[in-house]
Amino acid sequence: MSEWRKSSRSATETNCVEVAHVDRRVAVRDSKNQAGPVLTFDRGAAASFLGWIKGA
Questions:
Q1: What is the Cα–Cα distance from 27 to 1, expressed in whole angstroms?
Q2: Which of 18, 21, 27, 40 could join 2 via S-S bond, C-beta 3.0 to 4.6 A?
Q3: What confidence score (pLDDT) does residue 12 get?
Q4: Domain that holds residue 46
Q5: What's the pLDDT at 15?
Q6: In the structure, how many helices (H) and strands (E) does the chain have?
Q7: DSSP code string of 4-54
Q8: Would you say 44 and 24 are in contact if contact means Cβ atoms under 8 Å apart?
Q9: What is the pLDDT of residue 14?
Q10: Domain total for the chain?
Q11: Can you give the residue ranges of the DUF397 domain (predicted)?
């Protein structure tokens, strides 16, 4: 798995979403609960979701 990352716009904020690349999937977790659940999406679904968010 690659390293967990969060948006550079989050700066020192701890209430963020973090992402990592796992094989051909994208993993997402809550930065304030790093031991909590992780959601994974195929790259196509993740790209569609991000496109939808950016358009909202």
A1: 9
A2: 21
A3: 76
A4: 8-55
A5: 81
A6: 1, 3
A7: -B--GGGTT-SS-EEEEEETTEEEEEETT-TTS--EEEEHHHHHHHHHHHH
A8: no
A9: 73
A10: 1
A11: 3-54
Residue 1 lies in a domain: no
Domain assignment present for residue 3? The answer is no
Q: How many Cβ atoms are within 10 Å of 14's Cβ, its own excluded?
A: 9
Q: Is residue 15 in some structural domain?
A: yes
Is residue 16 a contact partner of residue 10, using CB atoms and an 8 Å limit? yes
Q: In the prediction, which pLDDT does 43 show?
A: 94
Which tokens belong to 26? 């994208």
Q: What is the pLDDT along the chain (56 residues), one digit of tens a residue?
A: 679 998 887 777 778 889 999 989 999 999 889 899 999 999 999 999 889 988 87
